[in-house]
Amino acid sequence: QVQLVESGGGLVQAGDSLRLSCAASGYTFSNYVMAWFRQAPGKEREFVGTINRSLTTTYYADSVKGRFTISRDNAKNTVYLQMNSLKPEDSAVYYCAAGRRFRVAEAEYDYWGQGTQVTVSS
Predict the structure, then answer these.
(1) At CA 45, angle to CA 41 and CA 49, rounded to 5?
(2) Of the candidates 11, 12, 19, 15, which has an alpha carbon nearest to the alpha carbon of residue 96?
């Protein structure tokens, strides 16, 4: 069955960096767009960024642009989220997702991981 397993979350201080990974299995990874979303306590889940199948195009939410970078390794069936200059407002559960189209809406994504917690202290 399809599995997306995130890892790499943790507690860091403001200004620190963290890299999240998402290992995929159970489907043809290279056929899917991959994205990261996040959800802070009491808030709706929000789009963070996405990367297309061929690694040529990425798109980010304004709140993370210039600080976060998405990459993927189709040979390893893994997508990454490099987060630099972290801020307390980046604290959230981070989810990876797989979808067929290069979009920002949650509804466009078919498969989801269970999430990994990122907490940034001030």
Answers:
(1) 125
(2) 19
Which is it for strands 116-121 and 10-13: parallel, antiparallel or unpaired? Answer: parallel
Taking the C-alpha atoms of residue 51 and residue 40, their distance in angstroms, rounded to an integer, is 22
Check: CB of residue 15 under 8 Å from CB of residue 79: no
Provide the mean pLDDT of the chain.
Answer: 97
CB of 116 within 8 A of CB of 94? yes
CA 12 from chain center: how many Å? 17
Local structure of residue 17 (DSSP, 8 states):
-
- DSSP of 40-80, one letter per residue? -TTS--EEEEEE-TTSS-EEE-TTTTTTEEEEEETTTTEEE
For residue range 55-67, list pLDDT tens digits in order: 889 999 999 999 9
